[in-house]
């Protein structure tokens, strides 16, 4: 795959998590005191923004896998959890943000593509 093909595929993989952002922004705005003044709605939008890196890890891994598998999404989420905890042990002030989600999503999707066809032997 050439570099242009890689970035086209990456752009398609990023579309799924980016599609969540307008909904989160609307929820966050509608819940503000000067509009609807419903704290529940504002907290729902804030929860999406607070976990944006995890959403990117899940979305990119699922989109990067060859068949949009849920197992790839789980691999991306687990990879994100491992990366964030490992980075905190190295330096507690490191915060990779959404980049960590994108990286672990790519790794999780690629790992799924590589090893999804392996079957365990049955006795």
Number of helix segments? 6
- The 3D shape can be described as globular
Helical fraction equals over 70%
Main β-sheet, in a few words?
none
Average of the residue pLDDT scores: 94
How large, in whole angstroms, is the Cα Rg? 17 Å
Domain PTS EIIC type-1: 1-123
Enzyme class: transferase
GO cellular component, one term: plasma membrane
GO molecular function: protein-N(PI)-phosphohistidine-sugar phosphotransferase activity; protein-phosphocysteine-sugar phosphotransferase activity
What this model shows, in words?
This protein is mainly α and 123 residues long. The chain has one domain. The protein contains 6 helices and no strands. The model has no long low-confidence stretch (mean pLDDT 94).
Features:
single chain; 123 residues; mainly alpha; 73% helix
Task: List strands and helices in order, with pairings.
Blueprint: H1 3-18, H2 21-30, H3 39-50, H4 52-64, H5 70-90, H6 98-115
Helix pairs in contact: 1-4, 2-3, 4-5, 4-6, 5-6
